[in-house]
Amino acid sequence: MDVLVVGGTGEAGRATVVALVERGHTVRVLSRSGTTDVPGATGYRGDLTTGAGLHEAMAGVEAVVDTFNVTTQSYDVARKAFVGSTERLLAAEVEAGVKHHVLLSIVAIDGSSFPYYRAKVDQEQAVVAGPVPYTILRATQFHEFAGQLATQTKFGPFVVVPTIVTRPVAVSEVGEVLADVVEAPPAERAPDLFGPAVQKMPDMVRRTLQARGVRALVIPVPLPGKVGEMMRSGRMGGNGVGRRSHETFDEWVQGEPRRA
């Protein structure tokens, strides 16, 4: 099968590219750079903000996997990025005759006041309202998220971490499940993907830093308001209904020194 992975140079996208290549699919990776470091995949240059390059990248493609992400706390910025890119992708897919649009989303975003989550809901709705048969896969936070937070929120000897309770999943397993979704017919919603155990983010960050050999004091911070309550409630880890991944955070963090 010919598959285009949008955002294929990011963590989830790259994991999906690897999984699809290993299964023998012909994989294209859309990015602004037009490159990919996955052997067996082909890079295509494209710009989701303008639609430039989309038609060339999609010629002959049967399925498109959208793992594109944007880092922002602004609802307006996130919505413009997610919904705008989705609408341009779907329009190009119609012209190319794409049969399956696959979107990676996030568990437990319904009804959240968190701006980023609200924008992801809008993106899902754009896919649902669009003209291309689709499947949406929601996943919990990745094991890798702890390391990202450790880098982003380190101030001198301190690391300030929101009090988040979730069931994290290894990004490699997200890629495998997205590959499963690609190989199956469009299903509208795939079962939610969540990790094998409940974890607290400050503890995940602490263990990630220890694995990297970094000395720092992790300071848990319970965020105020409805967003903070949602983060502490465990809802971000899902309701236990769906597909449970296998690799635990303990198993994953053992390899962190090699990845850091």
Topology, element by element:
Elements: E1 2-6, H1 11-22, E2 26-31, E3 41-45, H2 54-58, E4 63-66, H3 75-96, E5 100-106, H4 115-129, E6 134-139, H5 145-152, E7 154-155, E8 158-162, E9 165-166, H6 171-183, E10 188-189, E11 193-194, E12 199-200, H7 201-212, E13 217-221, H8 225-233, E14 243-244, H9 249-253, H10 256-259
Parallel strand pairs: 1-2, 1-4, 2-3, 4-5, 5-6, 6-10, 8-13, 11-14
Antiparallel strand pairs: 7-8, 9-12
Helix pairs in contact: 1-6, 3-4, 5-7
What does this structure look like?
This protein has helices spanning 11-22, 54-58, 75-96, 115-129, 145-152, 171-183, 201-212, 225-233, 249-253, 256-259; strands spanning 2-6, 26-31, 41-45, 63-66, 100-106, 134-139, 154-155, 158-162, 165-166, 188-189, 193-194, 199-200, 217-221, 243-244. With 260 residues, the protein is α/β, with parallel strands linked by helices. It has a single domain (2-259), classed as Rossmann fold (3-Layer(aba) Sandwich). It has a seven-stranded parallel β-sheet with strand order 3-2-1-4-5-6-10, with helices on both faces. A three-stranded mixed β-sheet has the order 7-8-13. Strand 4, helix 3 (75-96) and strand 5 (100-106) form a beta-alpha-beta unit. Helix 1 crosses helix 6, helix 3 runs parallel beside helix 4 (115-129) and helix 5 crosses helix 7 (201-212). The longest helix is centred in the first third of the chain and has 22 residues, at 75-96. The mean pLDDT is 94.
